[in-house]
Amino acid sequence: MINCLPCSQGVLWLSVSIAVLSVFVLVVDVYLNGNRMIGFSNGVRRLSIKIGQTKPSKMTFGGLHCKARCEIYPRTKDVKRFKVPDDKVRWNVPFPEYSPPSFTTETVLSGPYYADPDICSGKGEITKWNEIDGKVSRVSFEGKYEVVDGLPLNPVGRTGIKHRGCLGRWGPNHAADPIVTRWKRTEDDEIVKGEDGKQVMEFVSVQRRDNREWAIPGGMVEPGSLVSATIKQEFGEEAMNSLEMSEEEKKEMHDKIEDFLSHGDKVYEGYVDDPRNTDNAWMETTAYHFHDNDGTKVGQFNLHAGDDAMAVQWMVCNSSINLYASHKSFLQEAAKRIDASW
């Protein structure tokens, strides 16, 4: 004889089961796809999870690029961009008089390991645009870009100069940027507060050798490499001068930062308003935020500039700082996520 639940109990059991399943699906969806429901997201938005599993950031580039239209191209004295007014940046806006100069540095044209072939001179070809090409990712975080006359077009718009400039790849050139922060403290170990009453955040900032601008330490993601590996390597080389360390010192450094730089929040993934950008080559990055809340981890490290950095320091984060490329906007997002003063 089969025991059956009374009708009312069966309906109740089914309703509860559906409710539990719905909540489970919602939690998974929020975790994988970001905070879509304001009420629910407030309870989960401060999850700290491993790199590669972080929920997508809601911060997007948007707007027009400005630094990518600087008059003189970086690392040159006389390579001038064709002037592009704000209302002519977008490709869909007619600009019949647009006649940008072509420029690629001799270093890039010499064919270093990180550079694509010079397809404009017929020395090679690229056919896998908007996809993975061997170990090289030609996929843009901004979505599918157009390819005109065999060359990719900058997804944000005109820059006033054609070809690659000093960038190695046609199309997107991918980088990784670690935003490492701590709270600013007094000599008595009290956390400093800003005029807005919020705690003041400091970040590891490096001074670039090529233009002496202050920036977030970071570097290019090599073909086949993980973003997480690039972040650890670049932070070690630029902020701690690991290239000059002995093997014993490298091991000690590695042990200290390995776990800390394995967990963080993704604050940005997309196009960078970088002065090196051209109509056919541009910078994109993945920026992660690593916050040392009690100051007992990287907050106590002895920073020492190395590799591409000529100086390094803990710098106060606020709205008045002037940094390289789009780095200021990354820090603003990081400050917002931990409710720091800005």
Count of runs of 4 or more consecutive helical residues: 6
Largest sheet: 7 strands, mixed
Q: Tally of extended strands? A: 13
Contiguous runs where pLDDT drops below 50 for at least 5 residues: 1-12, 25-58
**Any idea what the radius of gyration is?**
24 Å
Name the structural class: alpha+beta
What is the first-to-last residue Cα distance?
71 Å
Oligomeric description of these chains = single chain
Q: What level of helicity do the residues show?
A: 10-25%
Give helix and strand order, one letter per element, not per position.
HHEHEEEEEEEEEHHEEEH
Strand residues, percent? 15-25%
Inertia-based shape: globular
Mean pLDDT: 83
Description:
By secondary structure, this protein is an alpha+beta fold. 20% of the residues lie in helices and 20% in strands. The chain has helices spanning 7-33, 38-41, 106-109, 227-239, 247-257, 327-337, and strands spanning 102-104, 132-133, 136-137, 147-148, 151-152, 162-165, 171-183, 201-208, 214-215, 219-220, 265-271, 281-292, 309-316. Strands 7, 8, 9, 10, 11, 12 and 13 form a 7-stranded mixed beta sheet that branches. The protein has a two-stranded parallel ribbon with strand order 1-6. It has a two-stranded antiparallel sheet with strand order 2-3. The longest helix has 27 residues, at 7-33.
Essential attributes:
single chain; 342 residues; alpha+beta; seven-stranded mixed β-sheet; two-stranded parallel sheet; 13 strands; 20% helix; 20% strand
Secondary structure elements and pairings:
Blueprint: H1 7-33, H2 38-41, E1 102-104, H3 106-109, E2 132-133, E3 136-137, E4 147-148, E5 151-152, E6 162-165, E7 171-183, E8 201-208, E9 214-215, E10 219-220, H4 227-239, H5 247-257, E11 265-271, E12 281-292, E13 309-316, H6 327-337
Parallel strand pairs: 1-6, 7-12
Antiparallel strand pairs: 2-3, 4-5, 7-8, 7-10, 8-9, 8-13, 11-12
